[in-house]
Amino acid sequence: MKALILSGGKGSRLYPLTYTNAKQLIPVANKPVLFRVIEAIRDAGITDIGIIIGIGENGRRVQEAVGQGRRWGVNVTYILQEAPLGLAHCVLIARDFLGDERFVMFLGDNVIEGGISNLIREFEQSGYNSQIVLTEVAEPQHYGVAELNPDRSIKRLVEKPRNPPSNLALVGIYMFDKHIHEAVRSIEPSWRGELEITDAIQWLVEHGYHVHPYIHRGWWIDTGKPIDMLDANSKVLEELTPEIRGFVDRDSKVDERVTVEEGAEIINSVVRGPTIIGENTRVVNSYIGPFTSIYHHCLVENAEIEHSLILEHSKIINVPARITDSLIGRNVELRHSELKPRALKLTLGDNSRLGLV
C-alpha cells in the first residue's frame, strides 16, 4: 500500500499563527501534527508516502520540515496542488504517484486515538474497494456526513449538510483501491467549486463498489481551530509516557506525569502534569499547570501557565496574571512592564483574540 497525506490549505481558522507557519506543523505535545500522521502511517507498515502541498511559503515549510522522510524510515514524494480544489482533486493530481495500488488518504491536521494499524490491516485483508472512518460528532453540519442503511451499509454521503441525516462524520482517513481514480474523474465540482471526496465515494456506492464504514469509538480531533489544538494537546499529553531527561533542581516540585525534555531546566518551580517542557527551555520561579505544552528554547520566569500551548523561542516573564486556555506562537515575548503611565502596548496579528482582566 501507499499513503497520501493532505497538507495543503491555508489554515485560516488558526490565524494569525498560520500566517507564518503551516497548520500541520503546529505541535501537539511538542510534536508537529504532521509528524504524528507520518508516524501513524509508518507504524502501519507503509513507507511510500505522497504529501500534497500548496504553493507558497507554507508548502516550502512542510518540505523543509519533513525532507525526504529519512528520519522515519519512509520515502516522501511531494505533489503540488496549485489551488485548494478539494480532496478528490488531490487524488486526481496524485494519479501518477499512486498508480493502481491500494492506498490510505490521511488529512495532515488530524489526530486520532490508537493510530491506524488495525484499520490498514483490516482493509488489506478484505475485499473492500474502499473503507471510510466515521465517528459520532456533536455538530455534524461542519463535516462530511454518512447515512447508513439498516444493515449498516452506506446509503449516502453528504458534504457539510444544513440538515445532517446522521451524526456520523467522516474523520479524514480513507482507504481506496484503484476504482477511486475513475470516481474522481467522473464527478463534477460542488457548489463550493471543489471536487468533493464525499461525491467520489458516493459514486463508488452508486456503481456497486463495496465501501465499508468503519466506526471509530475512540477520540478524534480535527485541529482546525485553537480550541481543537488545545483539546488535542490535552488528549495526547495523557497518552505520553513521562520521562525526565532535563534538569530539575531540589527546590522544584515536578509530579510523575511531567515530561522534561533534554536540555530543559526547572528551577524553583512547580510543574503539574500531564505537561511537557521542551528541549532547552528554562522554567524559573514559575508554576506550570496541567495540560500545558511548552516547546523548545523557551523561557518562562515568574509566571503561571496552565492548559496552554507555547511555541518555540518564546519568552514569558514577570506576568502578574495566570495564563490559561491560550495558544501562544513562536518568538513571542510577553512580559510585565513597570513603565509609567500604565498602558497596554500591543502588536497583534489579523484575527487575533485577546482577553484582558
Describe the structure.
It is a single chain. With 357 residues, this protein is of the alpha/beta class. The protein has two domains: 2-236, Spore Coat Polysaccharide Biosynthesis Protein SpsA, Chain A (Alpha-Beta Complex), CATH 3.90.550.10; 242-335, UDP N-Acetylglucosamine Acyltransferase, domain 1 (3 Solenoid), CATH 2.160.10.10. Helix content is 20%, strand content 30%. The chain contains eight helices and 29 strands. The strands form seven sheets. The chain has a seven-stranded mixed β-sheet, with helices on both faces. Strands 14-17-20-23-26-29 form a six-stranded parallel β-sheet, with no helix packed on it. Helix 3 (87-93) packs across helix 6 and helix 6 crosses helix 7 (197-206). The model has no long low-confidence stretch (mean pLDDT 88).
Report Rg: 22 Å
The multimeric state of the shown protein is single chain
Which residues sit in consecutive blocks of at least 5 with pLDDT less than 50? none
Strand content: 25-35%
In the CATH hierarchy, the third-tier topology of the largest domain is known as: Spore Coat Polysaccharide Biosynthesis Protein SpsA, Chain A
CATH homologous superfamily title of the largest domain: Spore Coat Polysaccharide Biosynthesis Protein SpsA, Chain A
Q: What is the rounded distance between the termini?
A: 54 Å
Determine the mean pLDDT: 88
Biggest sheet record: 7 strands, mixed
Counting H and I runs of at least 4 residues, what is the number of helices? 8
Mind telling me which CATH architecture of the largest domain this is? Answer: Alpha-Beta Complex
Q: Please give the CATH class of the largest domain.
A: Alpha Beta
Helix amount: 10-25%
Number of distinct beta strands: 29
- Count of domains: 2
Global shape = elongated
Widest sheet: strand order? 5-4-1-6-11-8-12
The secondary structure category is alpha/beta
